[in-house]
Amino acid sequence: MNATRNEALGAWMDEHGYSSNSLADAVNGALEQVTGRAGGLDGSSVRDWKAGRVRWPKSATRKALEAVSGLPATALGFVPRGRTSSSPAAPQEESEMKRRTLVGGVVVAAAAAAAPGSTGPRRIGMGDISRLQQRFAEVIASDHRHGGQLGIEQQAAALANEALNLQNAGSATQRVRSNLYGCAASFRSSAMWAAIDGRRYADAKTHMREAQALAEMSGDQAIKFRIWSHAGAMYRHIGRPGEAFAANDVARNLHITRRDPMFASLGLARQAAIHGTAQDRTGTRRALDQAQDALQRMDPGAYRPVWLLAFYDQAELDALALSAFLALGDHPTAEFHAHRCLATLRPHMRRSHAITTTRLAHAQLAQGDFETAAATAMHVPADAATQHARVSRMLQEFGAALRARAPRSSTAQTWTEHTRDAWKATT
Predict the structure, then answer these.
(1) 123: helix, coil or strand?
(2) pLDDT tens digits for 61-116?
(3) How far apart are CA 273 and CA 266, in angstroms?
(4) Contact indicator for 145, 348 with CB cutoff of 8 Å
(5) What is the dihedral of CA 311, 313, 314, 319, to 10 degrees?
(6) How far is the C-alpha of 362 from the C-alpha of 424, rounded, in Å?
(7) How would you label 65-77 residue by residue, b for 16+ Cβ within 10 Å and e otherwise?
(8) DSSP string, 154-187
(9) Phi/psi of residue 123, each to 5°?
(10) What's the CA gap between 376 and 392, in Å, rounded?
(11) In contact, 274 and 248? CB cutoff 8 Å
């Protein structure tokens, strides 16, 4: 017998602007919220539902689909196993089906009324959260490619406002509202980091205060950690280690660091970098040893937020060690960590690659290896050298130090020509 098409699902998708692929993505996101692991659905899965080839999806998938749509699975045209759409239902069962159909019709009507151009209420669900989280992942990816740009900061701040606007756009469960605050806090923390990376510290503090308030309303320990850890990094860059320790300690004392060694490792690695700024050699080495131990103890298969998975690994730990030992004036150890970082840095971390290469050049220059240092610095891409505030400043300092230590050398002359010619097209 030929399968009967699921007209109800197709109609709901049309009303809400879902393609097969976008609905699969939304349900996968909701599955991750329900089960802790991302779903494996794709467009063909949804097409099987619409064609009637799958009449009753698995339990977790149904729950995720109901979270996205705000409707019971039966109202979306799915038929429980053991019954066909033409089978007579028992009186009690028929009554329940009628009730669900009526409720489903009311909710569909409300959803349709909330379509663009209308003024009626709408149901905010986990599908909305999933779409926001996808856009958050895009912001994270852009930050790792470019870093510190005002456009990234502005985009993240606008998305934080968009997430907050959804709070007033319709009805939602408390779980959904908490997730909306978490999304807004995530976007605001990305705006904060972009401002820090671009050395716009006054703007970073404004974003920080808003992010902290949103994180408290969300109750999300992971995003609280991110914000306070960023605050510690900000004060370290400003050169205020006392405040950097205080902020980073808030992150490190959250219970998520006791539950997951990966969070503990990041907190300790950033603590080591602050110790370096404070000229505490013993504290630096102790924190790095503890960070390394925690990283080795972590469960690689555990669920973690995208922002953490996107950047924290052995290479980032070495990058923070490089920063610490540069600040301490231990240039051979700094160079060791720079080489180890560059050997394992993931390709998408273009901003981190530029920063690490610049710091390596500084470590080599401080050891008197002028030619190698200049060659290393000239490997920094021109766009990072001229457009990323931190990289640009470090390279300016590199050039000044090179000219001070070898004022009439051919190496200094080569560096001057490089900065004039290779960067001219990007300034």
Answers:
(1) strand
(2) 888 888 777 678 887 888 887 655 544 444 333 433 433 333 333 333 333 333 44
(3) 11
(4) yes
(5) 30
(6) 23
(7) bbbbbbbbbbbbb
(8) HHHHHHHHHHHHHHTSSB--HHHHHHHHHHHHHH
(9) -100, 120
(10) 15
(11) yes
Concatenating the DSSP letter of every residue in 345-392 gives --TT-HHHHHHHHHHHHHHHHHTT-HHHHHHHHTTS-HHHHHH-HHHH
The one-letter code for the residue type at 190 is: S
CA atoms within 13 A on the CB side of 296: 6
For the segment 190-229, what is each residue's pLDDT rounded down to a tens digit? 999 999 988 899 999 999 999 999 999 999 999 999 999 9
CA distance 77 to 163: 30
Lookup: tokens for 378: 């000239």
- Rounded Cα distance between 348 and 346, Å, is 6
Burial of 51 (0-12, 13-18, 19+ CB in 10 A): middle
Is the four-CA dihedral 181, 186, 189, 195 of positive or negative sign? negative
Q: How far is CA 277 from CA 151, 220, 280, 328, 380, in A?
A: 30, 30, 8, 7, 24
Four-residue CA torsion sign, 204, 205, 206, 210:
positive
What distance in Å separates the CA atoms of residue 39 and residue 130, rounded to the nearest whole number?
12
Task: Measure Cα distances from 383 to 66, 162, 194, 326 in Å.
Answer: 46, 31, 17, 24
* C-alpha to C-alpha distance for 83 and 60, rounded to whole angstroms: 20
Give the largest CA-CA distance in the chain: 97
CA distance 204 to 231: 9
Residue 148 per-residue DSSP state: S
What single-letter DSSP state applies at residue 339? Answer: H
